[in-house]
């Protein structure tokens, strides 16, 4: 069974940066596109960025364009999300997801002074 484990969340001040990782186990990682979602308290889970299996194509929500970068390392079976210029409204639990429907457990990102 595929397991996705996110890490890298935490508390950061506005304007700061964080890098999230999502490690996949027992999975043909290179064949699957992947995505990051986030869910703030009382809100729906929203797609943030997505990337194709080969890592060549990406798509971003308007709210994070120019600040977030999604990437994947198919040799390490790991998905990344580099988040820069963080804002308080970026506060949420961040989840990674495969195109086959598997989800990670989530990692909390809190942006606050």
Offer a few descriptive terms.
four-stranded antiparallel β-sheet, 113 residues, mainly beta
Q: Helix and strand string, N-terminal first?
A: EEEEEEEEEE
Instruction: Identify the overall geometry.
Output: globular
Cα end-to-end separation: 40 Å
Number of helices: 0
Side by side, the strands of the main sheet go 2-10-9-4-5-6
Cα-based radius of gyration, to the nearest Å: 13 Å
Count of strand segments: 10
- Strand composition percent: over 45%
Give the uncertain stretches in residue-range form.
Answer: none
Helix content range: under 10%
Q: Could you report the average pLDDT, rounded to the nearest whole number?
A: 94
List the topology elements:
Elements: E1 3-7, E2 10-12, E3 18-25, E4 34-39, E5 46-51, E6 58-60, E7 68-73, E8 78-83, E9 92-98, E10 107-111
Parallel strand pairs: 2-10
Antiparallel strand pairs: 1-3, 3-8, 4-5, 4-9, 5-6, 7-8, 9-10
């Amino acid at each position: 069974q595929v397991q996705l484990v996110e890490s890298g969340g935490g508390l950061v001040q506005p304007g700061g940066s964080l890098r999230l990782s999502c490690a996949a186990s027992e999975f043909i990682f290179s064949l699957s596109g992947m995505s990051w979602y986030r869910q703030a308290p009382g809100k729906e889970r929203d797609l943030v960025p997505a990337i194709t299996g080969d890592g060549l194509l990406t798509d971003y929500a308007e709210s994070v364009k120019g600040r977030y970068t999604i990437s994947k390392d198919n040799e390490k079976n790991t998905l990344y999300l580099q988040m820069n210029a963080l804002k308080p409204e970026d506060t949420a639990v961040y989840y990674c997801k495969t195109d086959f429907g598997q989800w990670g457990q989530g990692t909390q990102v809190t942006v606050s002074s």
